Amino acid sequence: MVRIAVATGLLIALLPVGVEHFQRGQRNTSTAIAAGTTFTRRRQQFRFEACRPAWSPKGNEIAFDANWRGTFSVYVADTNGNHIRRVPDDSVWSGHPAWSPDASEIAFARGPEGHRHLFIMRADGSQLRQITDGLGNDHFPAWSSDGTTLAFNSDRNGKREIFTVRRDGSQLSRLTHNDSQNDEPEWAPRDTAIIYDSDRGGSWNIWVMRPDGSADQKLHAGAAPSFSHDGGRIVFQDTPAKGIVSLFVMNADGTEVARVTSTNALDFVPTFSPDGRQIVFCSNRDGTREVYRMHADGTSQTRLTFAAHY
After folding, report:
1. Following DSSP, what letter does each residue of 196-207 receive, concatenated?
2. Residue 249 forms beta bridges with which residues?
């Protein structure tokens, strides 16, 4: 595990759990690969692929999307990759699953390219209902901790921007306003901030803002950030060398950055387990994009999905 020191910069106060500031990020000369952008252009390389894993708040299941039956669908498995089921069990493009805080529901993107919107369903795939509409694609939903609001990105105004919407589809609000691509929003614990990634300035960096879009600040180079459930750490992806994407863990203030995967492959879109002891992520290290699990320090990396067996 490689540790990287981060210099102190301009800070703003947003986070709870004893973390008082965010660090203004360092610019990375290499370009981090943000899920949903560069990987979209890579999809033709793989016949089968699984991606976008999300750990249930109860800790007993993992949701992910996979192209195993000719189109992307949402699947749920136990934490060992067994007992896989497709939800809902149909052929409509579905992806980017996100568990509600009580694990009873899953928000996800659904529909054809150009008309892809957010839906919510029960965890068993029942009671499907549409949340957003209009032109464009809505992706990467993330629940607020009280379960009332979803943050997501949308290209409905041209570039991908971060929005929020109530779970009933009301109170749609645009948070970012820049001529860049903005992706992967996630709420800080107790909903004090929203973290996301953006390619503004020519490289992918992690940014943080208040839930109303104010106090927008760069935190660190990288993409696909995800908080631990206590809010003390962030796991994310970055590009240490050309053609390689690795996973890193840092404190929520941008300090004590540790590289936790070191393959010559693409390791990406990580999320913590509810207890913070494990990380689930995607990787193409074995030739297809599959879901993997490891300890938070990068040890005991285990492959969970096997497309050829499904």
Report:
1. EEE-GGGS-EEE
2. 235, 258
- Mean pLDDT, rounded, for 200-215: 96
pTM of the model: 0.85
Sheet holding 2-4, edge to edge: 2-4, 257-259, 244-251, 233-241, 223-227
- pLDDT classification of 94: cutoffs 50, 70, 90: very high
Q: Which residues pair with 105 in a beta bridge?
A: 122
Rounded to an integer, the average pLDDT of 165-182 is 96
Chain centroid, CA 34 distance in Å: 9
Fold observed for domain 2-309:
Neuraminidase (2.120.10)
Q: What are the CA-CA distances from residue 89 to residues 64, 93, 125, 291 (Å)?
A: 14, 11, 7, 20
Q: How far apart are CA 219 and CA 195, in angstroms?
A: 9
The answer to whether 271 touches 280, Cβ cutoff 8 Å, is: yes
* Model pLDDT for residues 184-194, shown as the tens digit of each residue: 999 999 999 99
**Contact in structure between 233 and 273 (CB atoms under 8 Å):** no
Q: Which residue has the tokens 């409905």?
A: 156
Dump the DSSP string for 24-55.
PPPPPSSPP--TTTHHHHHGGG-SSBEEEEEE
Q: How far is CA 57 from CA 1, 78, 174, 290, in A?
A: 27, 13, 27, 21
Record the tokens describing residue 140, joined without a space: 């990467």
Q: Before 88, cis peptide (omega within 30)? A: yes
